[in-house]
Amino acid sequence: MALLLEGTSLARKVREELREQISSIKSVDPYFNVSLKIIQVGGREDSNVYVRMKTRAANEAGISCEHVNFPEDITEYDLLLAIKGFNEDPTVHGIIVQLPLPAHINEQIITEAVAPEKDVDGFCETNLGKLTKREGQPLFTACTPKGIMCILKHYGINVQGKHAVVIGRSNIVGRPMSILLEKANATVTLCHSKTESIADIVRTADIVVAAIGIPHFVKADWLKKGVVAIDVGINSIPDATKKSGYRLTGDIDFENAKEVASAITPVPGSVGPMTVAMLLQNVVESAVRFRKMSRKRKPTLL
Amino acid sequence: MALLLEGTSLARKVREELREQISSIKSVDPYFNVSLKIIQVGGREDSNVYVRMKTRAANEAGISCEHVNFPEDITEYDLLLAIKGFNEDPTVHGIIVQLPLPAHINEQIITEAVAPEKDVDGFCETNLGKLTKREGQPLFTACTPKGIMCILKHYGINVQGKHAVVIGRSNIVGRPMSILLEKANATVTLCHSKTESIADIVRTADIVVAAIGIPHFVKADWLKKGVVAIDVGINSIPDATKKSGYRLTGDIDFENAKEVASAITPVPGSVGPMTVAMLLQNVVESAVRFRKMSRKRKPTLL
Ligand SMILES: NC(=O)C1=CN([C@@H]2O[C@H](COP(=O)(O)OP(=O)(O)OC[C@H]3O[C@@H](n4cnc5c(N)ncnc54)[C@H](OP(=O)(O)O)[C@@H]3O)[C@@H](O)[C@H]2O)C=CC1
Ligand SMILES: NC(=O)C1=CN([C@@H]2O[C@H](COP(=O)(O)OP(=O)(O)OC[C@H]3O[C@@H](n4cnc5c(N)ncnc54)[C@H](OP(=O)(O)O)[C@@H]3O)[C@@H](O)[C@H]2O)C=CC1
């Protein structure tokens, strides 16, 4: 039975550290306030759940978090105006736009409209470019891959020289994940829907990260004995034993995979909470950076 | 014996098309002039050779190319000033800084100083970020990987679904190469100096791109029968039979590899000339883009 790479308590620890950091700065600077805006368009049920989770976690950590909900039929222009307002508001440190957006709004245009220095999701080209370039220092790194690197580090899992197979190449998970693992000196293979013989490729992996969005896509017999298995997927499947009538499950066949892997993340309870914790960490880093910059600008004579 | 993926004549064809494109624009707009600045610091012999090659090719294609040579001991500040001058000069369409730079100059700062819309090498974070992001449209793509994609296309080599192994992760070759292949729907593994069991990984490849800088690093017995082998390496090794006392060779053991591969690039004569041709293509694209933008800006009443 594999070691469970648990994220809930690790995420709690991160949130507590952030709360302490915020209150220690507030004790010397009572005007210090960390502020996050979460923009949502429409009312998709899954988005509602994510926004609620983020808002609650932010508030618990001492971050002022506003959920800004626009109607489903808002124009792209009006959404851009709202983002521009937050970009220019010096009291705002982080802006996230909950994806997916309705079809009439161009996701690329919207994610690029967020100022790179407030792009706490790490989705914009400037931050992705800094991540990709060897010497680049992104202002923010995408929260899910950042959280996974944290989990690996916390459990002392060595990545250097290992063969990591990442399944999925989205801007928010797979792609930045492959770069972070490579920068930590893993040898990375990036798989996607056009990959041929995917089972054979996964079988060569020392570390597998599954970010596809298909329940139990990765089978236990695709896994090398002793593999480290990271499951990003959050899929809701029917379950008559639950009051809600469904339950959440990952992209890896957990029940069978845990007998083959040396370590595995449960779904829920690992990558999900760490993603939220990294978002809060990015927002606090941003507020601290803005505070430093505004103090630098003060004339030294005063 | 493998098919030779020849680049010299393909590069000549690209250069001829560029010359025709330039003269056809000049025939309607006599003021149209395509201008490239090549900045070199010091006088490294290998850099001299590359700069000479680029300058000659540019001039042959009808591009005004100036080789701007600064002394080895120029300060970073003065180099930045020179780049700023070219950034602001509307008659300049492309700026490249010949690498490597002397140790006292920060390569990251210098490559980031070139305006993204004149960064015809495609090295800056803005262009790398646009390349990395799924929907991103880089203004310029790094010339060597772009040239390799051209060669593959020219010879009708299908990339989608194939397993491509890229060895080397530099900003200018390996890293952008891995992204271009992945965007063309290959499954890509990126290897580097920390990769363990590299021979075994290369053995699983349908396409290998070697960009390491070590002569004959990739052995024939690392190759799967029928592999497509792309050799980026340019290494000079002693050769008593040559007047100069040396000859150029690649990162793949060509003589033995050509018996295993289905297709292979010779060194020299393939990736090298295509790299130069893609640089010229980027410069012409830039001049055409600047021309379009300046015409757009003209008041419509005139
Ligand atoms: N735990 C957390 O906090 C988070 C969880 N998630 C969850 O992670 C999963 C992935 O999310 P996201 O990255 O946004 O998803 P996307 O839908 O953006 O990307 C899915 C990726 O999976 C690939 N894919 C689809 N089908 C196959 C297949 N048959 N074989 C191989 N690859 C395939 C796609 O390939 P192609 O590119 O070729 O189409 C694509 O790259 C979802 O379940 C999501 O809910 C997401 C974000 C955060
Ligand atoms: N044909 C053309 O037009 C061009 C040719 N070149 C040639 O291509 C070659 C590579 O150039 P460039 O990308 O600039 O080189 P760099 O020196 O910047 O990068 C070399 C890469 O090779 C990796 N590497 C080094 N040793 C090993 C090893 N033992 N096993 C596996 N990987 C290794 C390094 O890994 P790590 O990152 O871990 O250090 C690094 O990523 C050179 O020969 C250069 O002359 C370059 C540009 C254009």
Number of β-strand runs of chain A: 11
Radius of gyration of chain A: 20 Å
Ligand inventory reads:
NADPH dihydro-nicotinamide-adenine-dinucleotide phosphate
Structural class of chain A: alpha/beta
Distance between the amino and carboxyl termini of chain A: 63 Å
Strand content of chain A: 15-25%
Taken together, the total number of domains of chain A comes to 2
Quaternary structure annotation: homodimer
CATH class annotation of the largest domain in chain A: Alpha Beta
Average pLDDT over all residues of chain A: 96
Order of helices and strands of chain A: EHEHEHEHHHEHEHEEEEHEH
CATH topology of the largest domain in chain A: Rossmann fold
What's the shape of chain A?
Answer: globular
State the helix count of chain A.
10
What's the main sheet of chain A like?
6 strands, parallel
Strand arrangement in the largest pleated sheet of chain A: 1-11-8-7-5-6
Instruction: Spell out the CATH superfamily of the largest domain in chain A.
Output: NAD(P)-binding Rossmann-like Domain
What is the share of helical residues of chain A? 40-55%
- Uncertain runs of chain A: none
| CATH architecture call of the largest domain in chain A | 3-Layer(aba) Sandwich
List keywords for this structure.
homodimer; 302 residues; alpha/beta; Rossmann fold; three-stranded parallel sheet; 10 helices; 41% helix; binds NADPH dihydro-nicotinamide-adenine-dinucleotide phosphate
Description:
Two copies of one chain form a homodimer. The mean pLDDT of chain A is 96. Chain A is globular, with a radius of gyration of 20 Å. The N and C termini of chain A lie far apart (63 Å). Chain A is an alpha/beta fold and 302 residues long. Chain A has two domains: 30-118, Rossmann fold (3-Layer(aba) Sandwich); 143-272, Rossmann fold, CATH 3.40.50. Chain A has helices at 8-28, 45-60, 76-88, 107-113, 125-132, 143-154, 174-183, 198-203, 254-257, 271-297, and strands at residues 3-4, 35-41, 64-70, 94-97, 163-167, 187-191, 207-210, 228-231, 235-238, 246-249, 263-264. In chain A, 41% of the residues lie in helices and 16% in strands. The longest helix of chain A is centred in the last third of the chain and has 27 residues, at 271-297. Chain A contains ten helices and eleven strands. In chain A, β5 (163-167), α7 (174-183) and β6 form a beta-alpha-beta unit. Chain A has a six-stranded parallel beta sheet. In chain A, strands 3-2-4 form a three-stranded parallel beta sheet, with helices on both faces. In chain A, strands 9-10 form a two-stranded antiparallel ribbon. One NADPH dihydro-nicotinamide-adenine-dinucleotide phosphate is lined by residues 144, 167-170, 172-174, 191-195, 198, 211-214, 232-235, 271-272, 275 of chain A. One NADPH dihydro-nicotinamide-adenine-dinucleotide phosphate is lined by residues 144, 167-170, 172-174, 191-195, 198, 211-214, 232-235, 271-272, 275 of chain B.
